[in-house]
Every structure is written in C-alpha cells, then in structure tokens.
Amino acid sequence: MSSATTDLESYPFTPSEALTIHPRYRELQQQLPIQVRLPFGEPVWLATQYHDCRMVYGDRRFSRAAGLTHDMPGMMDGERLKIPDALFMMDPPEHTRVRRLTSGAFSPARVAAMEGWLQELVDRLFDDLAAAGPGADFIEHFSSKLPPLVISRLLGVPEDAMPSIIEWIDDMVGIDIPAETRGKAHHELNTYISGLIAERRAHPSDDILGALVEARDEGDRLSETELFNMALALWLGGVDTTHNELGSMLFTLMTHRSHWEELVGDPGLLPNALEELWRFIPSHKYGVLFCRWATEDLELPSGRHVAAGEPVYPEHTVANYDESVFPNGWELDFHRVDPQPHLTFAHGSHHCMGSHLARLEVRLAMETMLRRFPSLELGIPAGEVQWSPTAMLRSAIALPVTW
Prior knowledge:
Blueprint lengths: L8 E2 L13 H5 L5 E4 L6 E4 L2 H9 L3 E2 L30 H10 L4 H5 L2 H18 L5 H6 L2 H10 L6 H12 L5 H24 L5 H10 L6 H32 L1 H9 L4 H11 L11 E3 L3 E2 L5 E2 L4 E4 L1 H4 L35 H18 L4 E2 L22 E2 L1
Parallel strand pairs: 1-2, 3-8
Antiparallel strand pairs: 2-3, 4-5, 5-8, 6-7, 9-10
Helix pairs in contact: 5-15, 7-11, 8-9, 9-10, 10-11, 11-15
C-alpha cells in the first residue's frame, strides 16, 4: 500500500444500528479518504464522498476481477467470494457478455408489462395482512413474501420451494455463519438449481431460467457455472434487497410521521418521495459492499492518490448523504429540486439490472398501503424494533403494525 499500514483503524469503526448513519461519516466526507483495515483481507481506502464513489463504480480503471488475485477486504473471508464465473466478480467485456443475456428481461418496457399481475399479488398479500388484524407483522405477511413470489414467477420456480431457497441463501450470505452450515447450504442450493436446469433442458420454457438454459445449450454463450451463478444472482439481488428495502421504507415513514401524512394527503408526491427514500435509507451495513482495485496509478476526484493494485471501498450509503451533492443530505426531503442520481443501485457496468423491477414492486406496495391503510402505525415503539445481527443488509426482524 502507499502508506504505513501498522496504525490503521479497524473498520467498521461504528456499528450499523437500525437505519442510522453515525455522525463520524459526516466528518470523513470533509477530508481525503483514509485507509482502514476490515476483519478480513488487506488494507483498503475508504471512499465516502459521492464523486469518489461514483468514479470507483464507473471508471474502468477500477476492477472487480482483480480481487480474484488479492486478499479481499471484507466482513467475512473473501476466499469464498472468489468465483471467476460470477457476474459480481467480472469486468467488461466478460461482464457485458453475461449481463446482456438477462438484462433484456428487466428492461423498462418488460417490467412495465408485469404491473397487472404484480398489483394482484400485492393486493393478495395486503388482504392477508388485513385478515390477520392490527398487530400483524408487516415482514411476515408482506415484505418477506412479495419479492420471492415475484422472482419465483420470473424463474419458473414452484412457490412451495421458496422457504427452503430463502433459508439456503440466508445461510450462504449471512455474516458469522459457520463454514459447515454455509457449505451445506451451497450444496443444497446447487443441487436444487441444477435440477431446475435439467428440467428446462427436458422441457423448454419461456421463463428467464429457460432463456438462460437456451443461451447455454444452443448459443453456447454461457458456461455451466455461469448459468448456475446467474440463476443464483437473480435470487440474491431480486429477493433479499427488495424484501429489506420494503421493511426499511415502512420503518422510515412510520418514524418520520409528518412525511407519511404528507403522502397520505398528496399521493402524487410518491414518485419523488420514493427516490428520496432510496437515497436516504442506508440499506447496506458498513463494510459489506464489494471494493474495486485500481489497475493503474490514479487520483480520485477528492484528490486522494491511489496506486495501482490498491483497493478502494465505495461506501455508497454514506456517499448518498454528501451535502456537496445533496443539500441538507442528512435530512429526508420529498421536495428536492433537480436531485442528482443516488448510488443505491450502484453505477456503471455493475448498476443493478433489476432496479426497474425493484422500483415497481416498491411503488405498487407503497401506493396500495397509502390507499388501504392511511392510518398505519408501528405496533411497538421504534426503539424496540430488532434488527438482524447477521444479515449483510440492515434487516428488521419484525415490524408489527396497527391501523
């Protein structure tokens, strides 16, 4: 590294508590990025300014694939993340080739065509919530069910398989999960997805998994491991993230009561409000985002020099609060004028290809909730809501609600 590493601070230096961002990060944004040491891996530059993070995500002089030959910094042993055929570890042009095979399935036009059956699904789940009565858990009855049902339909996976798949994925990606448990979960999921792939070969289908199998077998554009990893990525990105975001948005609106009441009185404000909520809510815990390695000597927009071979951690959750880009960025404001694009869905070649679907799911959920439950409140004090200690995302364990 380009500076002494013996006196580096341990990172994260503040815990991820509920949906708060520690004030220390506000101080860090006023200075050049510092080097820190995570529980695993080599030292890393910590980027908290918006333009630094945007450059790390979007400039091709930063590489994800370089992590395959490095001691990857993170909250868990990075060796298990070194999967050459996984989309999240690829750089263009390999990344472009693999992503192109599925990105069309999540185009704005294709996603918009899903709105009808998605609204029916949202209504059905809110019927179940209403039937359970005041005190029902929003996580149990709605946010934990909607994203898996959506992805299951897109992949052609039976609904009754969802609980097992979710459990396997939680065991694979959770923090501090024993290696034996993690390995068993990976084996079980690998076996299940391999069975689905074999089924699509025997009986071609028009779902996304069927299209991926066809690309593998006829076009020969996906390797067998790329096929498996893409199916897994669709589950990871399409289920866990949206599930947690739905809960976090509800919690945020319930704890910013005037903002909720403003939306009840003016539902037309919802599009602006949702983008602001995507920006404002710190969905990821500190230190769990994937860093990038500089492939040559360069300088970040902040002025920090980064040497070739050094990793940089783009903490986009903090960057979304950068007041040089978002005036009064530490405040929730549904009336921002000409807001800059937030980094919640990342940026550049690794921008979340499911962002249009995630936005649609959340929009329909919030529109329906405002219409059907305008007097919604948390059923327990906000300070008593428990948050998962092991999930990579900031995940509420339960959100009982009354109306």
